[in-house]
Design brief:
This protein has 113 residues and is an alpha+beta fold. It has a single domain, classed as Arc Repressor Mutant, subunit A. It has five helices and four strands; from the N terminus they run αβααααβββ. α4 crosses α5. This is Transcriptional regulator.
Length: 113
Amino acid sequence: MTLEQLSPSATESDADRDRRTVSIGESDGLLEVLASTTAREVIAVVRESPSTPSEIADELDVSLQAVTYHLRRLQRVDLIAPVGVRYSTKGREMNLYDLSTESVTIDLTEPGM
């Protein structure tokens, strides 16, 4: 069995991803996370293809610690989620990350207004 056969294939197409709306009152954490250039670059990498933290770090030429930090923050605001496991050439299990939503809209009206 090859490493490619052990790796999960993408099961969700871009068109099938959820679209989310967040009210302006609930968007502080989301906007704070997206203010980071590195976080937006991480999103761009996984948008192309589900990736492991080390693959993202290599692609962006940043440290694995920086990628892990941003992945954790992006998960907290529900933009990225682990979607499977990939195995390294040494047999080490690595989480595979993908976008959890296709788009996010911020609703500028407060509830009840």
